[in-house]
Amino acid sequence: MMAQMTELKRNIQIQEEKYKNYINDMDNYNKKIQSLNSNINDVLKHKGYIEMRNKLNNDLYDFKQKNIDLEKELKEIQKKIKEYNKLKKEIDDEYYKLMSESREKLQLQEIDLSNLKKIDSTFEITGSTRPISTIAWYLTLLKIKNKFNSNSIKFPIVFDSPNNAELDNENIARIFKYILN
Fold first, then answer.
1. CB 128 within 8 A of CB 167
2. What is the domain partition of the chain in residue ranges?
3. CB-based contacts of 178: which residues, under 8 Å, 6+ apart?
4. What is the pTM of this model?
């Protein structure tokens, strides 16, 4: 029995040694796995970094392209605005010229020249010269429309008694001459 006990103890020691070796091997494998996991994590992080960098580079390129396109569009818009402002100035200049001439021809000194600088400015006239100034204003606008938009629809002009104001013979002759010219 003693021999069996000794044999059992020896077998137990052998088994314990095997298990210790297995535990050591498992610890080594765990360390290797952890090292591999760390390497894999590093590789995954690096791959994620590369993908993110590539995406950011692509986004940056897209933004730069969009910026270039928007700058081209902005230049075109600015060019159109410049052309529009030039045309607007030409219209304002023509309006001033025509209204100044009408002011002189019809002797409408009540109209302040500073109110004729722009086509969208207003002037106020009272009394018997108001219908005359209205006729001058309408005809000036029609002349400008025909000059700057010659393809527009042309409607007949109808004056309902252009001398409805209390005009003297000189003013009546002046207004009819103005209209007919």
1. yes
2. 80-180
3. 102, 105, 106, 135, 136, 139
4. 0.62
